[in-house]
Design goal:
CATH class of the largest domain: Alpha Beta
Strand content: 15-25%
CATH architecture of the largest domain: 2-Layer Sandwich
Number of domains: 2
CATH topology of the largest domain: Ribosomal Protein S5, domain 2
Helix content: 25-40%
Radius of gyration: 19 Å
Distance between the termini: 16 Å
Number of helices: 9
Number of strands: 10
Amino acid sequence: MNTPPTAPAKINLFLHVGSARADGYHPIESLVAFANYGDDLQFAPGGNTFSIRVSGLFAQAAGEPEKNLVLKAAHALKQKVPRLGGGEFSLTKNLPAGAGIGGGSSDAAAALRLLAQENDIALNDPALFQAAHETGADVAVCLEGKARLVSGAGEILSEPVSIPALHAVLVWPGTPASTPSVYRAFDEAEVKRSTEFGIRASDIPLERGAFLEFLAKQNNDLTRAAWRVTPHVAEAEAALRAVDRTILIRMSGSGSTVFSIYASEADAKTEVEAIRARYPDWWVKATTLR
C-alpha cells in the first residue's frame, strides 16, 4: 500500500464565484477534496531559525526557497508560539506550480502539522489556524486534508464532509495559470456569476450515484476566464472529453489543472496512458480523491 503524501493535491470539485466585494475579494463556495498524490515534506529540528531545501521535478518552478510558503507558515506560527524550535525542511515538489491544485498551500499546511507534532501542539490549537490564515487563503482547509465546504473568501470551513472515493485523472497541460490574471479576466468578462450561495454539508449526498448527480449540477465559474488566460485548459478538457467512459470533467481552482472522474481505477489508468501517448509533455496522474 502506498504511503499517503504529506502534502496532497487539493482539488476543487466545484467552485462558485461571486462578484468582487468592496475589499477586492470574491465570495466563493467550493467543495474541496484531496488526492492520494502530492508533495513530500520532512522536518529536521535544530537551531532557532528555519531553512528549506527543495528538490523534485517541479523544484525550479516552485520559486525562490526563501519565499516558499513553508517558511512563511513556520514564521507565522513562531510569532504565536515563541517556544517553537527551528530546523530544516526538506520539500520534494511533485506537483506543478500555478496549477490550481494547492501545492504551495498544502506544503504550508504540512509544515504546520510537522511543527505541531514536534512541539506537542494540538492540531485543533487556534494558533495553527491563525498561522494558516495568515499564510494563505487555502492553507487552513489543507490542515487536516479532509473534504470540506469552503465559503466566504476561503476562510469559512464546514465540518469534514463524507464523500465517496472518486477515481480520477489529473491533467496539467504544462502552462501555469496566474490566479490574479484569471480573476481579472473573470471580472472583465460579461459572464454569469454565482449570486446565491447556501450549500450545506448536509445537502451533499453520501451515496456514490447521488453524489455524482449532485456534482454534475455544479460548476467552476472561473473556467471561461481561465480559457482566456491559458488556452491549454480548454485543450486539456477537450482531450479528456474524447473518451466515452468519462463521468465528469472540470477545472480545479483557477486552473490550469483539469480533472476527470471515472467509474473504476482501471478506466482512470487507461485514460492516463491515452493522454500521455498523445501529449507526452503534459503532466498526467491517476489518483483517488476523498
